[in-house]
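Annotated sample (chain length 308).
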Amino acid sequence: MKLLHFDDFKLGVLNGENVVDISDIANEVPHLGPHDRINGLIENFDSFKDRIEGAAKGDGVPLASVRIRPPLPKPNNIDCMAVNYMEDGTRDAPAPINAFYKSSNCVIGDGDTMVLPDVPATIFEGEAEIALVIGKRARNVSEADAMDYVFGYTNFIDGSARGLPPTGNTFYQAKSRETFAPHGPYIVTKDEIKDPQNLHVQLRNNGVVMQDFNTNDMAHKIPECIAWVSSIHTLEPGDILATGTNHRGLNPFMDGDKIELEIEGTGCLTIHVQDDLKRTWERITRLEHKESGGEGPATPQTGGKYAP
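Output written by the structure step:
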């Protein structure tokens, strides 16, 4: 089942290329807005599943005729795993398990725009990731039980403003900026994903493939991530846990870019990039930069404000 928000945050379920409005069903969940309505629906999904499945057989309206909105407009928590891939075997061992936090104000959805702020970042990037949607309250969960707490999956782009001063003051100011947590276009319930540790992930920038990897390269697997994060704080229904990326294909995001993240089984998330300062970088990946003998992890800025 694929759930999404559309137009003025109606809640819908996909039927092929059509979306069927199930707002009447979802509105039975006590709520103040679409954010706690979807969270409540996820928490109590067993009570609504049969009716939603029945509604999904309706005709609906063409998906192409509606505006898709973020499937999770305001999660209680957005946790993101850090350095969580083996980078195609180029790492000798997994990095110590680690994560960082994004504000729910970072959220945007399919068709929306990531806005690059006026800050002296050395580069702006977006990381292609598969994100877990938490299905029930999770606290001190064991790895053995972890998958029972997954409601579904969604595409996630981890926006990053790299290299901001002072040196070492990194995750918060790099990651938690507004518009830096695109996800969607919908939530896919976990029954539709046979093996989340074997999914093809591809990110295209203006139609050119930049990131192309498989989730089987993940260093700390999904159950370990859930267990570790839930040992630090409680995860709530509708929370997002993004699982990290293979950094070798990271590439600069610049004004006017069209970014497409397509993950096997979870659809294609499309966003746009806006930079009023029109800053520029060489259009290459981190791997290409390294192979050309470049210094540092990413290509240097070539033009615009803050260029060296």
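Annotation: Residues 45-55 form the longest helix (11 residues).
Annotation: The chain has a mean pLDDT of 97.
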